[in-house]
Amino acid sequence: MPNVKLVQGRGQYQNQNAYRTINMAFVPYFPETQRYRMHLDSQFSGNRGGYFSVRPKPYAGPSESKLPWQIRMDSYDAKGTGRLSTLNTYSRKDKAVDSAQNLPLQAESSMLGQELTSLLSANNGRVGRQHDINNANELELAMLGREIENFLNVGVSQNISPSSQHREGALSTQTLDLYFNENLGIASAMESLTTPDEVNRSLGIEVTTSDNKRLGKYAPSINPALDYHLILGSKSIAETVFNNHAKKEINDLNKAIQSKLIGPAKREDGRSHVPLGVSATDDQRLLETARSRFNMGAGGTMDSFARRLLSRHSEVLQDNIFSNMTKDAFMEQVPLGEHFQGIATIRGYVVDINGTRMPQFEIVNTHVLTGSSLSEAVRVQATRDIAKSHRKSFTLATSSIHVDAVNDAYRLTARENLLGAFQDASYQIDSIYGLSLYVGKAQGLKGSMGLTTPEIAEGLRIQISEMFNGKDVQQELSNFYAKMMERSNRLTEQWKSKVPTGKHGASIADEWTYGDLQGNPHKKYLGIWGARGQDTWKDGGSVGQNVSISPFLTTRREGTVRFK
Fold it and tell me: What is the predicted pLDDT for the residue at 46?
């Protein structure tokens, strides 16, 4: 079965199950046997519904030449042996494939994509979002927290709301991911995973799956051997290394802040002043000034680390103003390899250094949790905290949260509105006898990619299966399939005129036409091309023969990120 490799756009949604792409491409096909037929490969049906591939597949038939097909193919590809090795001057196959770039492959694929639109029933595929949070990891924790509240009776949070909304006092639109006063279930679990005091004094927690942030870049830079122990799963070593490294990074941060504030008063971020409002304190304005002295650096740099922590501390101060609380800290999640999650509780404060007021930070405490994600660590801890009689029910209630969160966060309104739409895509041949579709910004043959849902893709798979089994199907599908095969015939005929000239004055298609009676050995016995004017597909488009531009129609998860 052809593979599909994503060139661009993986990340946290590579396992989403909300959408499928339908990929339509015409590609140069050098078959394993002289005859082949269109085949529906749907081995990934069932609970992974919506996956299928319609493609040519070898079809055994009677011998049509004194020379086996594979020998003919090898000779065309400059891989002949014995007497045929004299033909190995260059690969005619490579030349033929290159010439296919001059064919209107994308135009034909795009027109067929439009034919598919009515089959995809775009207006019936929209599900809509349940929660307005775009990050799957944050949403999974928020949803998990609601279940914890139900089972532990720790109170009821507000409805799940977007965590990226700008808060009064925040110095950036990127605020803390989860606030403990809005996520009581998560707060309860974190009390067990860290300490009640740390949770009570913390405004919330920053959630991430990236190991590229400042506090995560620790093991290789300190001692590669320690990183090796982390891979093996040594929690005690992880705790020591993480604690030491977190303190070192905070110490370096404090020195960087001091250097920026003592030096020339220059904004480095290129942005105008952030209006904090009349209620902002002097400390908040100092934090904004300090933040402006750092560049808007990429993740993992000291600049981005400083800007993020200064903004978080301003949020803490603002929360104290409105809630009359005495919070002075926040938490950061730090992925530590495959086995552990680090939690750093960070406190911000302002101190006078040589007559200059300085924002500074300190590590209140660090913890290392066992789990491949923070959600896993929280779920395991919550299961321990819940009464034994309710643990099975809790497990069932939370079993689908990860998938549900990924799917819901991925259902952007703009993406939902593109259901049924098609756009241009690029594909590459991975194997001359098979096909890999490289979805994304890959150079290669042009095709068309549409967006649909797993349910609609599965319905299309079932219809194609029934059509191949001789059953009645929608007229739209029959028309689409007939046009697809007709275009394959037409493109193959055009290809014959695009391939370059061979050594005998004829094109490397005419020179290698199967069954030619003029006595040229290249033609009569080694031919792999059909004669000009001869259709590739016969018997209603079910059986093809010789080299062709064949259709490939495949559905995959990859590529959906391009619809936005």
Answer: 47
